[in-house]
């Protein structure tokens, strides 16, 4: 039964807006759990709740209005976020890749669409132009790996500017032709208006913006409204010129690129409004157009989707291969360029939606394009992560060498039963010569009982101070009132200059944690400090051997050397033996470290011939042993997906064993 029909008024705007907000809130979270871009979740949600799904959301005038605004906003932000400095640094190489990634997919796609799929000339040209576009969906992956300055990344970014601008210009020509303006005078008029509109936007808007920002200096809201007004004026100018308004919005972003710094409050407001409301509305509106019954019941749509996807990937792969040969790139750089340029999302949606609205293509192509977006975004993320990790490993051999920082250890405390254990461990890993105090830290939830809870937290911290003072160690007690524990820890770490965080491990996972993530999940994203996650159930001096598990490539992480020195420090405090399970490269790195630091310690080694296996390692754990595992943040060099299941595995299999997972500094 249709949900809207259950209401007395039928179509209920309050219900509709509530559902849209829930989609905007929950879709990215669900997609993150599935390792998929949030953009896919928005579109799928539109499909599920749209007229061809549960029929809760209607593709009415309101949605079309917000969808159009979101599309223009999306293209504006795409132009605004282009890094023009990087583009200029490698403009010739970027130009080479841009031309290749535009012409090759177009040249392959047009005959396939025209002769094989039997579309008309304009329809074939429009669909083929879609193959030339790409969106840097997987760019955050290279950011996490720290390889944004790699030549392949810069070339891919520059090529994005070239190919997207050329596709949008081609789209303008197709739109004008489809509108019936095909005689000589019409083309002269079209060319004149296009050039005039471009000059107004690219030259007039920056001058006007400088004047406005200078005259209206402190008006934050006025700045945002002014910029938004310019975007829609640009869109309107191009629409009146017979060109798709998305081109005007994109050029408006390029024209204001230098005047709105990436770290400015104005840019933050632009990003916030776009990501919170306008762009999600557009993505959901795209999903409303997708006819699920047509996809599932029509072999024609499936055939089109498979064909378009294969052609799109083939065109981008050949373009990346030619770029490698011409620019003398390495194999991994070629794969990275392909990964960054193979995902079709924002510009692809814009092109196909324009063609659909002009009647050049039908619903089957629109439906097939959504499947193409889903597949290419998934593949691009996997290829980028794989190639990026290889490049990071090759180009960052000295990643373990870091500048010395003043060591400050933060110990967030919430469970009184583990206070002594956490303080003892923090004191063990602390450098003996350090004069900095350990910082026990308590977070009080900001509610009506905050005052009472604050007093209780102070009592707990006083207990921590007394325990530390027994070993003549200095402590600095800190308490914060906040509504979110992970945010409070993250802010305190930055404010206090913390280098290491020692936190207790809550084995019980709530239902909400599975949806929104645990405190640990959020800390790993919000902090870059070395993070020790401790599940300590027995005194630290009660075990005879410490087993250290080191995954492949961990020796290349930034804080690896510091981790090893701290673990060795713990074994010396407890006089426990040390068994390390790691690769040959890891063993060589640790032996070199010990020799460099003139550290003498007896180490037993377990070096497997194949890849390291956490399951088989855990099977070797015996009583009176403590286990330390070097973990990895998602997207880092040594990250492996199997680490995501470690907490649950440890909780269920080793209820009485001291286990610590340490995440290197990032």
Provide a descriptive summary of the structure in words:
Helix 18 links the parallel strand 1 and strand 2 (about 440-445). With about 675 residues, the chain is an alpha/beta fold. The protein is elongated and about 90 Å long. It is about 60% helix and about 10% strand. The chain has a 10-stranded mixed sheet with strand order 3-2-1-4-5-10-9-6-7-8, sandwiched between helices.
Most strands sheet: 10 strands, mixed
- Count of extended strands: 10
Measured as a percent range, the helix fraction is 55-70%
Derived from helix and strand composition plus strand pairing, the structural class reads alpha/beta
User: What is the radius of gyration computed over CA atoms, rounded to a whole number of angstroms?
Assistant: 29 Å
Which residue ranges are poorly predicted, with pLDDT under 50 across at least 5 consecutive positions? 1-10, 397-403, 511-516
| Strand neighbour order, sheet with most strands | 3-2-1-4-5-10-9-6-7-8
Percent of residues in β-strands:
5-15%
Total count of helical runs of at least 4 residues: 26
Ends distance: 51 Å
Shape: elongated
Mean residue pLDDT: 79
């Amino acid at each position: 039964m249709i949900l809207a029909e259950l209401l007395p008024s039928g179509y209920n705007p309050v219900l509709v807006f509530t559902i849209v907000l829930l989609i905007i809130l929950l879709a990215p979270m669900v997609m993150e759990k599935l390792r998929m871009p949030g953009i896919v979740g928005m579109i799928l949600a539109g499909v599920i709740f749209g007229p061809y799904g549960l029929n809760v959301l209607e593709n009415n005038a309101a949605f079309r209005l917000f969808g159009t605004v979101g599309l223009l906003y999306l293209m504006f932000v795409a132009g605004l976020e282009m890094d023009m400095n990087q583009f200029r640094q490698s403009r010739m190489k970027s130009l080479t890749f841009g031309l290749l990634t535009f012409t090759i997919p177009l040249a392959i796609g047009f005959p396939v669409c025209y002769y094989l799929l039997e579309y008309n000339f304009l329809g074939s040209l429009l669909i083929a132009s879609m193959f030339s576009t790409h969106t840097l969906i997987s760019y955050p992956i290279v950011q996490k790996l720290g390889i944004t300055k790699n030549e392949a990344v810069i070339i891919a970014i520059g090529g994005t500017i070239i190919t997207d601008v050329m596709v949008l210009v081609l789209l303008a020509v197709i739109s004008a032709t489809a509108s019936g303006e095909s005689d000589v005078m019409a083309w002269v008029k079209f060319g004149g208006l296009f050039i005039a509109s471009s000059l107004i936007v690219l030259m007039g808007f920056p001058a006007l913006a400088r004047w406005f920002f200078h005259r209206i200096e402190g008006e934050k809201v006025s700045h945002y409204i002014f910029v938004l007004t310019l975007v829609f004026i640009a869109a309107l100018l191009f629409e009146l010129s017979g060109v798709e308004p998305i081109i005007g919005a994109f050029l408006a972003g390029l024209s204001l690129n230098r005047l709105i710094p990436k770290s400015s409050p104005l840019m933050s407001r632009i990003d916030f409004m776009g990501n919170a409301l306008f762009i999600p509305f557009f993505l959901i509106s795209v999903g409303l157009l997708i006819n699920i019954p047509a996809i599932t019941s029509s072999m024609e749509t499936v055939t089109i989707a498979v064909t378009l996807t294969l052609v799109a990937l083939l065109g981008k792969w050949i373009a990346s291969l030619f770029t490698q040969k011409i620019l003398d790139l390495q194999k991994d750089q070629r794969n990275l360029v392909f990964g960054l340029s193979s995902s079709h999302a924002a510009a692809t949606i814009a092109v196909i939606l324009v063609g659909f609205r002009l009647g050049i293509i039908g619903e089957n192509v629109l439906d097939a394009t959504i499947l193409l977006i889903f597949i290419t975004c998934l593949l691009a993320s996997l290829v980028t992560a794989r190639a990026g990790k290889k490049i990071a490993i090759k180009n960052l051999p000295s990643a373990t060498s870091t500048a010395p920082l003043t060591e400050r250890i933060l110990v967030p405390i919430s469970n009184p039963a583990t206070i002594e254990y956490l303080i003892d461990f923090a004191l063990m890993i602390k450098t003996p010569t350090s004069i900095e105090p350990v910082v026990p830290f308590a977070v009080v939830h900001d509610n009506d009982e905050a005052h009472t809870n604050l007093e209780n937290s102070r009592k707990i911290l006083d207990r921590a101070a007394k325990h530390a003072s027994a070993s003549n160690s200095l402590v600095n007690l800190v308490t914060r009132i906040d509504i979110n524990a992970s945010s409070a820890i993250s802010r305190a770490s930055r404010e206090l200059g913390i280098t290491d965080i020692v936190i207790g491990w809550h084995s019980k996972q709530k239902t909400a944690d599975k949806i929104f993530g645990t405190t640990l999940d959020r800390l790993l994203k919000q902090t870059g400090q070395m993070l020790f996650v401790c599940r300590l159930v027995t005194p630290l001096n009660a075990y005879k051997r410490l087993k250290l598990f080191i995954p492949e490539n961990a020796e290349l992480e930034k804080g690896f050397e510091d981790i090893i020195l701290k673990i060795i420090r713990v074994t010396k405090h407890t006089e426990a033996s040390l068994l390390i399970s790691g690769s040959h490269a890891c063993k060589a790195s640790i032996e070199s470290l010990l020799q460099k630091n003139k550290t003498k310690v007896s180490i037993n080694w377990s070096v497997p011939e194949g890849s390291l296996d956490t399951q088989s390692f855990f099977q070797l754990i015996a009583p009176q042993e403590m286990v330390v595992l070097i973990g990895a943040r998602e997207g880092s060099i040594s990250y492996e997906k199997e680490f995501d299941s470690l907490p649950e595995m440890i909780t269920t299999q080793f209820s009485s064993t001291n286990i610590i997972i340490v995440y290197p500094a990032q």
